[in-house]
Amino acid sequence: MLLLVLVVVSITCLFLASGMDPGNGKNFVNSVGTGTMISAVVGFGQTLITAAASQRALVAPVIDESRRALEKLAAEYRSLNREFFPTDVFEATPEPDPRFNELMMRDLAGSRQYFFRGFSGRFAAARLLLSHAEWEMRAVLADPSDATTVSGRARYLLRQEGPEADYDAIQQRLQDEMGMGLVGLFLARSRCTRIDLTVVTDPPLDRLEIFDDCVWVTLYSDVGPESALYPRTLRFSEGSFVYNMERAEFLRLGGGRNGRHFQITPETTRADFIALFGRATGRPLSEEQFSELEGRFRSFSQEFSTAAGLRS
Length: 312
Hints:
By secondary structure, the protein is of the alpha+beta class. It is 58% helix and 14% strand. The protein has nine helices and eight strands. It has helices at residues 2-18, 24-84, 98-109, 122-129, 147-161, 167-187, 241-254, 270-281, 287-308; strands spanning 88-90, 113-117, 135-142, 192-200, 207-210, 214-218, 233-237, 260-264.
């Protein structure tokens, strides 16, 4: 505002001086106008210099500090995302999702260890047979010899399938799936250095698959408005809170005293497995029954690989 006043006064004086007769009065007015103009120019220059200095001394440090604070905040949010948020989310589907299976098979191929926790393990066995690598596998499955475990899962499925479902048929189906899972793991033994198998009563409902770099959690407990054969699944990266928590819980459950422990190796013979099957399930397994379960598992594996778009 002061600079504007000086400029107006200077211009006014110079304009008045131009119309005055030569003499002391004109010289005085002209001198006032010229001096005022010089003062305005000098003041404007000083203002620019002062503003630039203030910018460097006051504003620039605030901007730099704000930038550092935002970078720190962004890094903290990224850390929280890695800790608690999944890298991938797959919604429930009635049919296998090819993208889901492609990513999981890629994780499996790049892993040295494969930890599985579920009810029967038949999907895990099918994935092993479809791969061409070698793993150290640990599996925690439902105890086939415990009637409460089977009946508990049957009641859960009965609630999902509706009033037309048959309880006895569901129980029989679960028994068959557990038998197929054990036979499938035996058939996949050549893909593993060894399979450490633990059977527990009343295992957690959600299925868990842990690889070197990630963990997959299939949420059977996430009951939607409609029942889906393939429930919602979350994938978390290594180092996340969920990965570390689930891995620690798996090792606790797999090494606990409440479970019964078995081992299948590439050297396990068919006769050895039949004896192991009897100890694990509490039911003897004849050669004919083994052949029947083997055929049913291979049919299941073929159907699954075709529907999921997988190739051995």
